[in-house]
Amino acid sequence: MIVAIGFDHAGFPLRDRLLPLISAAGHEVIDLGTDNAQPIDYPDKALEVGRAVASGRAERGILVCGSGAGVSVAACKIRGVRAATIHDTNTAHQGVEHDDVNVLCLGGRVIGSEVAAEIVEAFLAAEVSNEERHVRRRAKVDEIERTGGEE
Fold first, then answer.
1. DSSP-based three-state secondary structure for 147
2. Mean pLDDT on 58-78
3. Average pLDDT, the chain
4. How many CA atoms lie within 13 A of 22 on its CB side?
5. Which of 36, 56, 62, 123 is deepest in the core (most CB within 10 A)?
6. Stretch (H or E) spanning 133
7. 65 included as an active-site residue
8. How many whole angstroms separate alpha carbon 47 and alpha carbon 52?
9. Which H helix or E strand runs over 83?
10. Per-residue pLDDT tens for 92-128?
11. Given 9, 65, 93, 105, which residue is catalytic?
């Protein structure tokens, strides 16, 4: 699988743990930075990773900022991106299986590197479910995205 990954300065401390983990699991990494702790704006990273996923250049994305919330909000503005802030392994695999989450958002100031690694492994190992109830619910989410929630 091709995985686009981006960090802002607050997520940067998880970089050295996550990049080798993803590669070692046999995935191709599109490293969208940052490669240092100098302050940058998280929406820029969310846009880069989100565009990579939405365009099909990457199959999944991972974003790491301080809380995970900022990058999630920004990435969800991109049509075709289903981003979620996730801080446990159950939600990581269920988010993919049930909800087709394609961008994992993590809080570098919220979880440690080992928990982050476990979450990334669960996220990348999960597959989207084709059970009727999940397909139906995802179609409703797609309709909300298509209409912007307007009637």
1. helix
2. 98
3. 97
4. 25
5. 62
6. helix 132-147
7. yes
8. 8
9. strand 83-85
10. 999 999 999 999 999 999 999 999 999 999 999 999 9
11. 65
